[in-house]
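Contributing new records

If you add data, match the layout below exactly. Sequence lines come first and carry their own label; structure lines follow with theirs. Keep one chain per record. Anything else will be rejected by the validation script.
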Amino acid sequence: MDFKVKVAELFTSIENELSLDDALALIEIPPSQDMGDYAVPCFKFAKKYRKSPAVIASEIADKIGAIEEFEKIESAGPYVNFFVDKKHFAEKILKQAYKEKENYGSTNVGAGKNVIVEFSSPNIAKPFHIGHIRTTIIGNSIYKIYKYLGYNTTTINHLGDYGTQFGMLISAYKKWGSPEVVEAIEKNPIQELLKLYVRYNQEIETHPEYQEEARYWFKELENGNEEAQKLWIWFREVSLKEFNRVYDMLNIKFDSYAGESFYSDKMPGVLNELEEKGLLKDSEGAKIVELQQYGLTDAVIQKSDGSTLYVTRDIAAAMYRKKTYDFYKNIYVVGAPQKLHFEQWRKIIELMGYDWADDCIHVMFGTVSLEDGVLSTRKGRVVFLEDVLNKAIEKTMEIINERNSDLENKEEVAKQVGIGAVIFQELFNNRIKDYTFSWDKTLSFEGETGPYVQYTYARTCSLLRRGEIELDDNVDYSILTDKEAFNVIKKLEGFKAAVLGAHDKYEPFFITRYIVSLAQEFNRFYHECPIVVDDPEVKKARLLLTKAVNAVLKKGMELLGMETPERM
């Protein structure tokens, strides 16, 4: 039973013109337990009844009367306050958590619905740097949340493997690709290809004709030039090998690596359809779709030299995905600077007559910066994501050696905690906010951090090992009605709402904040209420609560993409 829904149902039984959803939206959580577990304000009904909200609240409380699941229902000023029966509440929530185990907090909201989540999408032959951390980690968490809620979910890594930058790389390689350079690229592909890219951009300043050469070689690539294709395939293969090493560290897998190049043979069809529907206009030799009347800048679909752009390829990709996957939602986890780009191609799809344009969702996020400066690929000033993850592991190992040098599997735990700390830090704030990456904050074992939550989980594992009893849900629930235990149980009830909030808003931070608060409540309970005690009934009841916290912390971290070490 969802007690909040029960409150809403009671209210709609009195106010029958009020829908269940509207009643749910009215319900508040009082700031103090003395004011009840749930409260419903009655200001909304004052005009209808021509009475004060306080009088209305009193009348509604009297009409509802006594209900089995609640100790009392009373009015306090303009509010109707609901006090749940603590024993009844504890039994319902803990039995649910115990019996549902792996599925606690899930629903069938996604049954029969196909969802695509596109994320990460680094550019081939360029560094997989810390700037990619946001799309990669946010996207992976959204994928896990949707999958947990029953959606048939497909992950796509839309690789940046096409465009003028490949013309630059091909031209640079043809100019400076000595045997020594080839050997260096094979050994250290991304760094060496980056050197070529940076050098080419620098040379353009004194050799502006190099810009035209880059455009020429990209057009040759589009036209199927054998030499250009061979080099492009090589750049792509060595880059993917590097990227997959980082994905393996993060335990991220993709169902598809269909990048921009995958859609190159599908773009003529897009151009033809745009032409047939009267949407293409000539503009100084280029082809555009006029969008100014919709409050957007016009979109260039084809350049004057015949080459295509991002917008053309994204239209082709969206059409292919709809045909192939018949998606319910097509989610793109891409930074806020691309907002105009997404608005343009979605509007074009709408103008083409496709009503699924609104099902293409742009999940935006802000930027990440380092405490010591900004990032720039063109100037070669980058911090590789792999280096950040390795540094997190090294620093965590130092902390483990200080705190618990005899810990078994230290290397594995350092990896789980170090990488988990980076993931948690990334997902702790609202995704649209910019943030500065801080080592001290990320790796702290105190406060609102990943290591704190993981340490709490490891503590629950330790307690369950020490308990040495066979657990079931046949316990004396009256033991769990004290303030500390009941606060934990109330927090456990909120897991489903946290998961649905993350789903509705594409915001993993609902879960991040939730598991921090659950860990905090459990640690208060742990310090105030001994768990592994001599009294078998008390021990069993408190261990059942510990087991529920253990399961929810584990699932919450899994939905964020974190691992869960059982010893720390």
